[in-house]
Amino acid sequence: MMKSKYVLRVFLSAKHMTANVVEWNERRVVAEASTVEHAISNAFEWGRSCNEKAAESIGEVLAMRLKTEEPGARSGVHIDVENEIKKKGVECKEGIWAVINALRNRGVKVITDEDHNKGS
């Protein structure tokens, strides 16, 4: 069962990283940030847009956009970290956590399954 109506998704390819927040009930993207965007990709060396530093930047930009574009997400954004790592591979773990931590550092409440299980 979904813990939050807002879900964080992280997508990785060999060259790019994208993170978005989806309003789950309506299946619509409410905020997104990606290294495909010139403003973000130009900040990194060519071919380095999928590293941990890029992931932090993606999280920071996503947090700013989420706060301005979807104030309803203040109740929290859910991510199943284990499932994301399982789907993307263990080598992507640091990037996923970098996005999560950047969101949290910018004041976005991120709820992981680990957090939810501690409260149960």
TrEMBL record:
One of its GO terms (cellular component) is ribonucleoprotein complex. It holds the Pfam family Ribosomal_L18p. InterPro entries: Ribosomal_uL18_bac/plant/anim. GO terms for molecular function: 5S rRNA binding; structural constituent of ribosome. SUPFAM superfamilies: Translational machinery components. Keywords: Ribonucleoprotein, Ribosomal protein. One of its GO terms (biological process) is translation. Belongs to the universal ribosomal protein uL18 family. This is 50S ribosomal protein L18. It comes from Lupinus angustifolius.
